[in-house]
């Protein structure tokens, strides 16, 4: 916010004001357009051009308020939560008035917007001087001087959507700026070999302004020559003549690419914080559930050891204590790892063969597979390998094969089928069993939730599928399941960006 400057040299100031013969004159489009440009530049609702008489502030032009004059002691715009007053200075240091913008809600303006207001105030002085005989610059040169020096994207269309003007902020190349005058966006898009979609959108926006007579705004994205996506906040303002007839549209745009990137980063951070908060709550719940039993067992065994008088009995109880502690340690480590996966953004990917990684898992389950007399069918011919972190792929195979063994049906021989296929640049891995299956109607929204168990089993912790989903999504992939009670389950995992 810029406060009103202190006035000085009152007699000389008033003399300069009266020489210009601006007080109590009729409305003039040249001054009205400067006020409108001030609103466009700052996004403010209110803008005024005032001149300070001996006892009053007189309003030459205004937008957003309906005043002719106010007392010098009570300038209207200072009552708003946002206001900026740029002095109109003549003869070096004589302030005869102000170009003001104000808003009913707080706003912030950048240095470039402030610079634009100063330029507009300077053009007011030029326009005042044009009232004197010594000044004979053309109105067209005057407006072009304003628009070319505003550090923003400014264009002017006629009533048929043909370009009347484009400043360097809109089109940097002078040759292109000359070419576009008298043409529309479709002709310019063809000239620059650009997609006409943006031209069509701008034509629709223009027709809306022309039809309604109201200002509209929108966001527009386009690629720069290097392929970078740029985002602009654009507005169109209708201009009418003294008879209320639509004559032109002023288009205004500012580059908000950096702001959009910042908003996206903020949204991502908020999403990550929300996810971490959910994980923390789930972690607390699962700790309460999965660690309570082992801790109770440890506590009971310690009491028994303290009460036992026989050395051999104490040794026997100690041997029973060791596996409970080991189980507790493993459970805790699994819980901690499940929470840390999403935070590990620097994990390294390697070129891995699915067969080799699967064999490591099958070797670890050798006795369980032999005991179940399970049949393992593997077909990785279409997509034999993936680029992926080794520990994640090993964990995925471990959890899915472990679940197939753990939840096998007692009524039939266990069969597990593993296959891979290509889907454009991605690889899809499927692991299908003929076990107990999952009731998808009942559990469709909680399949991969931490601590979720679908069948009773002494080794079930509700961590395997949660960890698998977390690992897959941490690498940008996805996982889904097809299943029905007593019909087995088929898990599918998509590994993205596998064009290797």
Describe the structure.
By secondary structure, this protein is an alpha+beta fold. The chain has four domains: 10-141, Beta-Lactamase, CATH 3.30.450; 154-255, PAS domain (Beta-Lactamase); 263-343, Helix Hairpins; 348-500, 2-Layer Sandwich (Heat Shock Protein 90), CATH 3.30.565. The chain is built from 14 helices and 17 strands. The strands form four sheets. A five-stranded antiparallel beta sheet has the order 3-2-1-5-4. Strands 7-6-10-9-8 form a five-stranded antiparallel beta sheet, sandwiched between helices. A hairpin with a 5-residue loop joins strand 16 (478-483) and strand 17. Helix 8 packs antiparallel against helix 9 and helix 10 (354-364) crosses helix 12. It is elongated, with a radius of gyration of 37 Å.
Offer a few descriptive terms.
500 residues; alpha+beta; Beta-Lactamase; Helix Hairpins; 5-stranded antiparallel β-sheet
In short:
It contains 14 helices and 17 strands. The chain has helices at 10-20, 29-42, 111-129, 139-149, 174-180, 185-191, 197-212, 257-307, 311-340, 354-364, 366-372, 390-406, 440-443, 464-474; strands at 46-52, 56-63, 69-71, 82-90, 94-103, 153-158, 163-166, 216-223, 229-240, 246-255, 350-353, 375-379, 385-388, 415-423, 426-433, 478-483, 489-495.
